[in-house]
Amino acid sequence: MHSAYSYIYTQQVLLQLDQTLSTSSVHVLPYRSKLERLRQTLHEAVLTAHGDQKLDSLHVLKRAGVSAAYPALSEAIAVESAGHRTSCAFVLAYAATVQDTRPLLATTTDDQAMSWDEAQVHTIAAALEAASTVCKSETTLSYNSDAVDKLVRSMAIPVVSMGILHWLQLLVASKTFYNGPFFHAAFPVVMSLLRQAIALHVGQWPTVFQVLVTSVRLQPESNPVKVLETKKETLRCMVHLMTCGYIFPVLHFIATQTDDLDQALLRHFIQLVLMRIAPPYSLRFTTVLSDILLHPKVSQALRTCPVETKAKLKEFAHVCQAEDELAADIRRTLSETEFKKYFSQYGKVVSAEVMFNRETNKSRGFGFVIFETEHSVDLVLQDGGHVLDGKSVRLLRILSESQVWGRLK
């Protein structure tokens, strides 16, 4: 609690200081910029350490600061009515269309430098009002197809599309939505709206991605099979975003969240990616995707993947041969995984290593397996006729130095 008060107090001091400096000359702009960076750094640090709960009170502070600086705007915001909604839509439409030809650092007012199309502003304002009417409730997404079609068409306007994305972000994160009766019926519509934003507005891809991240992290209290399917659908949309060009943020998310994601989701993601990629690949792409493929949890998940996926994996490794070191790492890991899997049928394997030539990166034709118990060693030696990768294998017991001396005694 004390940390929350300290945070709010510090933010209040910074906001008041900035407000005081705003009345000074233009020479203080660099100082105001530094104060704003400091405030943003503080905001991000508290958000990382404590989450949203410590930031809720700050919104009141921000509104108080705005109200003090702009009394007329404060009075307008206080009016909650249809007229208020119309006014807000007009302000947003104007801000989205007005063109200011003044230099970036200009501080003087020049009406001649401002130009806007009144008809265009009214068109956008009407679209914003119509979208806000549809976005009042999630139930609209589940049964009113005509309203959804209008919403999709209105997303051709960037500011309307961004407003819908912000609404979807709040909606998907709401417990009353993802634990409610309309979640599974409305979810396909949510994905359809996200795909529409992906197709129309490249600049909105980061916002779309944040909605998808929120969606894949959900833990709804409903049928686990349906929940898994919604997460798979979210991953399909993520891969679609990758194919459009937003590649590395998606791969980075999967790479950093591998330990938290279900193996079925990881397998599904890799299958989707392999179905949609084709050479030539950039070095950065092969490196990042290979890091994901070589993760133990992903390797475990891919053991039960279809034959087509395994063939795609081999194709990917083959293409990576241009990067000898990287390709060798992939082949070595896959070989050792199969090696260990074969001998695990005789007992717990502590380690399994295939020996490779450092210069050619090819297998030297032998390897070492360490079992947890001597009983497993006896079993594997008793069972003759071992065949690995279509080749007959001869097994020998190797004793440690202490075991050799023990037998000599």
Key terms:
single chain, mainly alpha, Alpha-Beta Plaits, two-stranded antiparallel ribbon, 21 helices, disordered C terminus
**Overall strand count:** 6
Shape: elongated
Level of helix content? 55-70%
User: How is the main sheet built?
Assistant: 2 strands, antiparallel
CATH topological fold name of the domain at 323-409: Alpha-Beta Plaits
Poorly predicted parts: 56-61, 404-409
Q: How many angstroms does the end-to-end distance come to?
A: 70 Å
Radius of gyration, Cα only, in angstroms?
Answer: 30 Å
Q: Give the oligomer, counting copies of the same chain as homo and different chains as hetero.
A: single chain
Can you give a write-up of this model?
- The protein has helices spanning 2-21, 29-50, 56-69, 71-77, 82-97, 118-134, 139-143, 145-154, 158-172, 175-178, 183-200, 205-216, 224-244, 248-256, 263-276, 283-293, 296-301, 307-319, 324-343, 374-382, 401-408; strands at residues 99-100, 114-115, 349-356, 363-371, 386-388, 391-393.
- With 409 residues, the protein is mainly α.
- Among the domains are: 1-78; 323-409, RRM (RNA recognition motif) domain (Alpha-Beta Plaits, 2-Layer Sandwich), CATH 3.30.70.330.
- The strands form three sheets. A two-stranded antiparallel sheet has the order 1-2.
- Helix 6 packs antiparallel against helix 8.
Topology:
Layout lengths: L1 H20 L7 H22 L5 H14 L1 H7 L4 H16 L1 E2 L13 E2 L2 H17 L4 H5 L1 H10 L3 H15 L2 H4 L4 H18 L4 H12 L7 H21 L3 H9 L6 H14 L6 H11 L2 H6 L5 H13 L4 H20 L5 E8 L6 E9 L2 H9 L3 E3 L2 E3 L7 H8 L1
Antiparallel strand pairs: 1-2, 3-4, 5-6
Helix pairs in contact: 1-2, 1-3, 3-4, 5-6, 6-8, 6-9, 9-11, 9-12, 11-13, 12-13, 13-15, 14-16, 15-18
InterPro entries: Nucleotide-bd_a/b_plait_sf (IPR012677), RBD_domain_sf (IPR035979), RRM_dom (IPR000504), TH1 (IPR006942)
GO cellular component, one term: NELF complex
Organism: Aphanomyces astaci (Crayfish plague agent)
